[in-house]
Amino acid sequence: QVQLVESGGGLVQPGGSLRLSCATSISIASIYLMGWGRQAPGKQRELVATITRGGSTNYADAVKGRFTISRDNAKNTVYLQMNSLKPEDTAVYYCNIRSTDVLTGTNNYWGQGTQVTVSS
User: Fold this and answer.
1) Could you say which of 12, 60, 95, 103 would form a disulfide bridge with 22 (CB–CB 3.0 to 4.6 Å)?
2) Residue 60: helix, strand or coil by DSSP?
3) Which among 1, 49, 53, 47 is positioned nearest to 26, based on CA atoms?
4) CB 108 within 8 A of CB 96
5) 69-73 contacts: CB < 8 A, separation 24 or more?
6) Tens of pLDDT along 69-89?
7) d(Cα 11, Cα 39) in Å, to the nearest integer?
8) First-to-last CA distance in the chain?
């Protein structure tokens, strides 16, 4: 059974930092993209950061320069370092893993979500 275990959310003051982690049971060899999405109340889920198998990263304009995505292949884990947090960053953050293998084809997995609240 595929598992994506997220951690690191919480309450932080504006200007503060948090680091999210997502450990997965999916074979690292089959993963071609890892990312983080978020969904604020009343809004659609949006991808905010992605990292490819080769290490190329991409960020939404709203978080560029403040968030950094990274991965540790040895631990099958993807991280999101969030700095200079703003109240508008408040949302449920979801880990996203995309993989492909000969048995199941292309798969798009989402974690259970972790709440990030930025408030004074």
Assistant:
1) 95
2) coil
3) 1
4) yes
5) 69/34, 69/35, 69/36, 71/34, 73/28
6) 999 999 999 999 999 999 999
7) 16
8) 40
